[in-house]
Amino acid sequence: MALQHNPQGAAGGIGLSPRAASPEPAAAVALGGLDITFHLDGGNRYQAVTGIDLAVSPGEFVSVVGPTGCGKSTLLNAAAGLLTPSAGTVTIFGKPLSGLNRRAGYLFQADALMPWKTALDNVKVALEPMGVPDAEADRRAREWLARVGLRAFVDRYPHMLSGGQRKRVALAQVLIRDPEILLMDEPFGPLDAQTRQIMGNLLLDLWSRDKKALIFVTHDLEEAIALSDRVVVMSAGPAAGIVADYRVSLPRPRDIAEIRLEKAFHEIHRDIWASLRVEVQKAYAMGDGRELVEGAAS
Amino acid sequence: MKRAKLLFLQAMVMVVFLLIWHVVTAYPIMGEVKTIQFFFSTPAAVIGRTWNQLTGTEIYWHIGITLTETVLAFVIGSAAGIFFGFAFARQQLLAAVFDPYIKAANALPRVVLAPIFALWFGLGIWSKVALGFTLVFFIVFFNVYQGVREVSPTVLANARMLGMNERQLFRHVYWPSALTWMFSSLHTSVGFALIGAVVGEYLGSSAGLGYKIQEAESVFDVTGVFSGMVILMIFVIAIDSVVTMVEKRLLVWRPGQSSTTV
């Protein structure tokens, strides 16, 4: 069990795989000294995150956990180019990011499907900006919907689908474009426990086919460990930073329900929870922690 | 069974209403029958007149005029409302500058414009179309404006992350969202187009359902007034059911739209 624990600060989290091929490949996503401050109405400023250094290699599955409101989503939005950092750099495959991140796909926490389009059209429309001809787009969209288990639901509108089914459509919509980087913001947050497990396994299955760099934000530590190669712990906000970076060397392929029963899983969980708990308590002390990080029981 | 009972009760309301009307106007309860009939006519006379008109041909020409005015007011008003709604929603400066003037213009009761429009556009259909336009425009304008402004930020961010350019965002996100809001006010805006047409006709014209009612009124033909109103009612209900059908077709994707309201 190779547990790697980088204490807060300096190199906190530049975690290239030790087995990386010799000419060190550029990280898929590299955040350097990232600092994001929001200017609120009335001249107030809120420093969401500060001094974030995080590098994600191609093919790496990295989860980001932290107390509620610590700026996990902010981090993801900076990597997506949806917001511009106040200071620091965002580098995508060695190139500084300007504007939207065209090489990334983003799976949102909230429903992001176009409610006026059927499941099929929602997936199809993702190919339109790439100039894929209609017939071809139709075929590929049906293929992807079948892959996420929705072959029989292609003509349904989002409101006719369950929460889990909508997430599957959203997943197909993101993956059909074959982005090199995947950004996921608590994508399974609103789903019930069983559906989360099914979706987690589906995600692992799809990801393992052509491993992409994946940043997965979650507040569920168990989910983070079960899915990822690395788990990054963020401190309580405001001015949140990365406090710890753990490598999860559980064997793949994994079944995220079964892996939770293994001894190695518990050891990792205990270690990460030790550093996460401090931050969660801090968040509570500030009257900020509306919701405890899940998995606190163990 | 339940539905039959409901229909029966609904029909009973009409029967009772007509019966009271008939009794009051046929027997000297409230005073002399002739006087009462002058003011209230009788149900038999109104039904008879309505039947005669509907089986004749002249009334359809009037209905056609009113329908033309309504459709023109609705189409032109909607087109202008959509255009300006989009422009203002996407150009915040424009919206900020014109905001007080739009509010002021919308605050004006539109009926007072009817004489001015009659002066400008004559007594033909265009003065009625203009009146309907001023009513429809603001409803559609405010709804489209709102629709564009209130596009879910997540849906928008998602569409942008999918690589859509401005044109594609317009087509797949802004346009459908604005149309949703517009369709949700479809009944209101069609209704207002019709009000514009009828009120305009009533105040000065030579054709249309409003004119028919006004004409009957000017010779104290109460039967003609009531029969004109009945025909107008039938006409409005017909238009409204067409709108409901269109709405159902266009908003299939909306939750709760599939269930019918009987």
The N- to C-terminal Cα distance of chain A equals: 20 Å
N/C terminus separation of chain B: 15 Å
Oligomer: heterodimer
* CATH homologous superfamily descriptor of chain A: P-loop containing nucleotide triphosphate hydrolases
Largest interface: A-B, 29 and 22 residues
Give a count of the beta strands of chain A, DSSP E runs of length 2 or more.
Answer: 10
Number of H- or I-type helical stretches of chain B: 12
Domain tally of chain A: 1
Write the CATH fold name of chain A.
Rossmann fold
Beta-strand residue percentage of chain B: under 5%
CATH class of chain A, please? Alpha Beta
Summarize the helix and strand pattern of chain B as letters: HHHHHHHHHHHH
Query: Helix proportion of residues of chain B, in percent?
Result: over 70%
- How many helices of chain A does DSSP assign? 7
CATH topology of the largest domain in chain B: MetI-like fold
The whole-angstrom Rg of chain B is 23 Å
Protein architecture, described:
The complex is a heterodimer of chains A (298) and B (262). Chain A contains seven helices and ten strands. Chain A has helices at 72-80, 119-124, 134-147, 163-175, 193-209, 221-227, 263-285; strands at residues 29-39, 45-56, 61-65, 87-92, 95-96, 104-107, 181-185, 213-217, 230-234, 242-247. Chain A has a six-stranded mixed beta sheet with strand order 6-7-8-3-9-10, with helices on both faces. Chain A has a four-stranded antiparallel beta sheet with strand order 2-1-4-5, with helices on one face. Chain A is globular, with a radius of gyration of 19 Å. In chain A, 45% of the residues are buried. Chain B contains twelve helices and no strands. Chain B has helices at residues 2-26, 33-40, 43-55, 58-90, 92-107, 114-121, 125-149, 153-161, 166-184, 186-203, 209-218, 222-250. The longest helix of chain B is centred in the first third of the chain and has 33 residues, at 58-90. The radius of gyration of chain B is 23 Å and the shape is elongated. Mean pLDDT of chain B is 88; it is low at 257-262. Chains A and B meet through strand 6 of A and helix 8 and helix 9 of B.
